[in-house]
């Protein structure tokens, strides 16, 4: 993946993370529902956090190809 594409994907990932951790999305999971005794909001926050970390790690560890 070219370096410029990596930069654009990282910027997209940053914007996606901002949307995930903003009020309207978090408000969807703020109800009294529990999953295995854990509030659904906590499950969503940690799952989204893990997704962002994994996607960032996969992207950063990919080799960069240069255009010739």
Domain unit count: 1
Structural class: mainly alpha
Q: Please tell me how large the radius of gyration is.
A: 16 Å
Query: Rough shape?
Result: elongated
- Give the termini separation: 13 Å
Main sheet overview: 2 strands, antiparallel
What's the total number of strands?
2
Sequence of strands across the biggest β-sheet: 1-2
Write up what this structure looks like.
The protein is mainly α. The chain has one domain (6-60). Helix content is 66%, strand content 6%. The chain has three helices and two strands. A two-stranded antiparallel sheet has the order 1-2. β1 and β2 form a beta hairpin. α1 runs antiparallel to α3 (40-60).
Write out key terms for the chains shown.
single chain; 68 residues; mainly alpha; two-stranded antiparallel ribbon; 2 strands; elongated
Give the structure's gist in a few sentences.
The protein is mainly alpha-helical.
List the helices and strands and how they pair.
Elements: H1 3-20, H2 23-28, E1 34-35, E2 38-39, H3 40-60
Antiparallel strand pairs: 1-2
Helix pairs in contact: 1-3
């Amino acid at each position: 993946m070219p370096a410029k594409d990596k930069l654009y994907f990282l910027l997209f990932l940053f914007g996606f993370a901002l949307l995930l951790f903003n009020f309207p999305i978090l408000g969807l999971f703020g109800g009294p529902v529990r999953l295995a005794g854990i509030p659904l909001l906590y499950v969503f926050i940690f799952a989204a956090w893990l997704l962002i970390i994994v996607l960032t790690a996969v992207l950063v560890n990919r080799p960069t190809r240069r255009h010739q």
